[in-house]
Amino acid sequence: MTESSSSQTRWSLIFIALATGVAVAGYVGKAPPAIPGIRAELSLGLVTAGWVVSIFSAMGSVSGMMVGAVADRIGRVKMVLYALGIIAFGSILGSQAHSASILLLSRLIEGAGYIGSMAILPVLIARLASDQHRGLAVSLWSSVIPFGMAIAMVASPAILEPVGWRGLWLVTAGFAVFFLLLAGFAFRGIDTHTPKNIEPYWANIKKTISIPGPWLISLCFLTYTFQWMAIMVWLPTFVIEERGLGLGLAATLAAAGVIVNIFGNLFGAWLVHRGVRRWLMITLGTSVMGGTSLLIFPDFLPDIVRFGLVLIFSFCGALQPTALLAGAPVHSPSPAQLGATNGLLYQGSQIGQLMGPPVIAFVVTYTGSWEQAGWVLFSGTALNLAMAQWIRILEKPVNT
């Protein structure tokens, strides 16, 4: 199902929504380069440092669908504005943290703002696009997270050197406030022209979870983000501690892995626009991710080859989020549940982000090496291959 919109695609507003998403995604990318400094100042272990990155996703992992249902009820623009205010507050709080507990609390608050914006902005984009361009416009959203992460990962070392990680937290808060003001101005009046869902929240959620489609795309997103975030978050730490590289080069290598994901997302958006089947894109993307993850951590290949595998892992894996995001309007029970469906999709994404880094940190800490991490990541591929076939069966009657 798709949500009705005007016959014209409002590209200028769509690009503002995309830019807002990029700024919010920077909150994911700012953490990995800052981890060494945070660990040194607050005396954090590897597992606790992993939670600094991943607890950001905890709120979304339990509230994504409810956030979507609330946005369907109160207005999507209003939800985005609230979310941007919350994420800015969390970042300011984190900049003042002098203990791991306060820092983790601030990241939890940031995560609440993150899910409130990232789950709803693509629904807003779907509203702003015509029927002809909706699939393309929504699938473009898949490049937002890696683009925002890449900018943050490349820019962070330049900010960390003079002002430290606390200054970096304040800079990101400033960007959130800027886009709050911009979005409030640019999107004024949109909520008044969008039909509200007046059903009780539970009835709305029950409709969403009563069919398999929303669950499948959410679970596929979970396994994808589990694999991708685990590699991208720990790559700087891995190359610093295992290969002896400096922070600047380590952050650049990680950013390159994120940047190539952007091009994979754009290629995936083109494939969606060309009508390539969703199950096929998921199958190809997850197969490459699983195969390359087995070869990235063992040291029997030259470092340059292993880094090349990281790039292949990231580029080909990006076929999955484009296909999954474009699938939300298809698998939503009705236009009234599009926010809840997209919220469930992002809830899966957040669970993957929450679990990936600490699980890998636990495996590395327990085994004393990074070599077993690839097998943990490969297990996600096995799950996604099965779910891709189920999606193939569901979509075959409607020729999607």
Walk me through the structure:
The protein is mainly α. It has a single domain, classed as Growth Hormone, Chain: A, CATH 1.20.1250. The chain is built from 17 helices and no strands. The chain has helices at residues 11-29, 31-42, 46-54, 58-74, 76-95, 100-118, 121-128, 134-140, 144-186, 201-209, 212-241, 247-273, 278-296, 303-317, 319-331, 338-367, 373-395. Helix 2 packs across helix 11 (212-241) and helix 12 (247-273) crosses helix 15. Mean pLDDT is 84; it is low at 1-5.
Short description:
This protein is mostly helical and 400 residues long.
What labels would you give this structure?
mainly alpha, disordered N terminus, Growth Hormone, Chain: A, 0% strand, 400 residues
Helix content: over 70%
Quickly give the CATH architecture.
Answer: Up-down Bundle
Strand content: under 5%
Average pLDDT for all residues? 84
Query: What's the story with the biggest beta sheet?
Result: none
| pLDDT < 50 stretches | 1-5
Quantity of strands, as a count: 0
Under CATH, the topology can be stated as Growth Hormone, Chain: A
> What is the 3D shape?
globular
In CATH, what is the homologous superfamily? MFS general substrate transporter like domains
Distance between the termini: 12 Å
Report Rg.
Answer: 20 Å
CATH class: Mainly Alpha
Order of helices and strands: HHHHHHHHHHHHHHHHH
Q: Treating each run of at least 4 consecutive H or I residues as one helix, how many helices?
A: 17
Helix-strand makeup class: mainly alpha
Number of domains: 1
